[in-house]
Amino acid sequence: MTTNQMDRRQFLGKLGGLSALALTGNAFSGNPVSKPAYAPTSMPATAIYKGMTLPAYWNEAYSSEESTNAMRELVDLGANSVCLTTTWYMLTVNSTTIAPSVDDTPSDTSLVKAITDAKANGLYVMLKPLIGIKDGEWPGNIDFGADNTKWTEWFTSYKSFIENYARIAKDNDVDVFCIGNDLASTEPRTNDWNAVAGRVRQTVGFPGKLTYAANAQNYDGIGFWFNLDYIGMNQLWTPITSPPVSEPNPSAEQLMSDLTFLISECERMFTREGIKIIL
Q1: Span 58-69, pLDDT tens digits
Q2: Strands 124-133 and 81-90: what pairing?
Q3: Which alpha helices (DSSP H) does 101-182 contain, by range?
Q4: What parts of the chain have a pLDDT lower than 70?
């Protein structure tokens, strides 16, 4: 089926729609902690990204007219940034091999077109490679226990996956590159993640900013923030106050209560780590 044969609803199901505000704040008060001399410097205090994620789950979604139009719609909404995604897959959370899907992974050509379209519309670009599990399990449950051989095999495959997109990011002047997303069970392996960041910086030579997107419940315990430029916080919040996550119509007061908590968490993390936040 061609894009022209699909109605807008069908297409957006493949493209993923517009979602997930991506924002770096500059209003946090307090003095950030000292960073190691080799740590990257963050953007000037006046810099701020205001944008949305435009995800794709079809091999040519980013090549379509609808994708190009979505970039213009973002600009019309006042955005100055867009986050593009691409997904490789594992069969199960116990697989050590990560590979693209012929049908579901955006082609490199279409991804480059999306980056070019975004730049042509004056947008900053973040590239966020994702991991999907074919059996529907959450990628945050990837786990090989104490089997270091399998962990090594998995991170070897992961580095190959990430380096492929880091090169695309480098060659196409992407502004921010996300080295991982919501891989909670892997996050305690700090040395492995530092090695991933090192491969992107030194082996590939990506000159832009780096981040990692952590689950809202896990960002506090990550030990490799110092090696990145931004703390990434995925905002799939379970409200701390009310309503419960199942509440379909929270009041403005309830939403503001949780937003106040979120702002305080961002300020706390910025003060502790000395690194700005991307939501």
Answers
A1: 999 999 999 999
A2: parallel
A3: 108-120, 148-171
A4: 1-47, 236-248
Task: Determine the Cα–Cα distance for residues 81 and 63; give it in Å rounded to an integer.
Answer: 19
**Structure confidence at residue 20 (pLDDT):** 34
| Cis peptide bond prior to 32, omega within 30° of 0 | no
pLDDT tens string 160-178: 999 999 999 999 999 999 9
**Residue 85 β-bridge partners:** 128
Instruction: Give the per-residue pLDDT at 238.
Output: 53
Pull the structure tokens for residue 239: 């409200």
Which residue type sits at 77? L
Contact 40, 209 (CB under 8 A): yes
Q: If you ran DSSP here, which 8-state letter would residue 199 be given? A: I
Short-list 40, 187, 60, CA closest to 114: 60
Please list, in sequence order, all residues whose beta carbon lies within 8 angstroms of the beta carbon of residue 167, skipping any fewer than 6 positions away. 204
Place of tokens 């090989």: 144
- The whole-angstrom separation of Cα 37 and Cα 30 is 21
- What's this model's pTM, rounded to 2 decimal places? 0.81
Distance CA 6, CA 141 (A): 35
Residue type, 251: S
Burial of 50 (0-12, 13-18, 19+ CB in 10 A): middle
